[in-house]
Amino acid sequence: xxLAAVLFVAASCSKEKRVENRLSSKGGKWMxxxxxSNLGVGFGSFGAYGGISNAGxxxxxxxxxxxxxxTYDDTTQVxxxxxxxxxxxxxVMMGSEELTFHIKDGERKEMRLELNMSVxxxxxxxxxxxxxxxxxxx
Length: 138
Prior knowledge:
It contains one helix and nine strands, in the order H-E-E-E-E-E-E-E-E-E. The chain is an alpha+beta fold. It is globular. The N and C termini lie far apart (43 Å).
């Protein structure tokens, strides 16, 4: 292995570790200050909707477990599972399904995650829904 390859691997690992530490530090709790959805991305966008403020929280525990409390219309649904990360993504397991949140912006105390989901309308037409989560460290 060349020196350049070793340095690349070392830099990648340290970046992943920095992201992991940022996510899980101080109890790992991130408040979802705003959640939006953009329907139809890539298929003729239907536009953004769902500007939900105070949409719950996510906890990324150092143990690799997560808690996602989704709040909408004063109702909270709590999901749990395991999480991992790369330098640009957070992956959560919900049962046998893996969801990949793309880290779009990030600082120590704030970040923006995007989740791309394939969905179908009532007529069976498939399209993409991009959920965006504005988050702030608790």
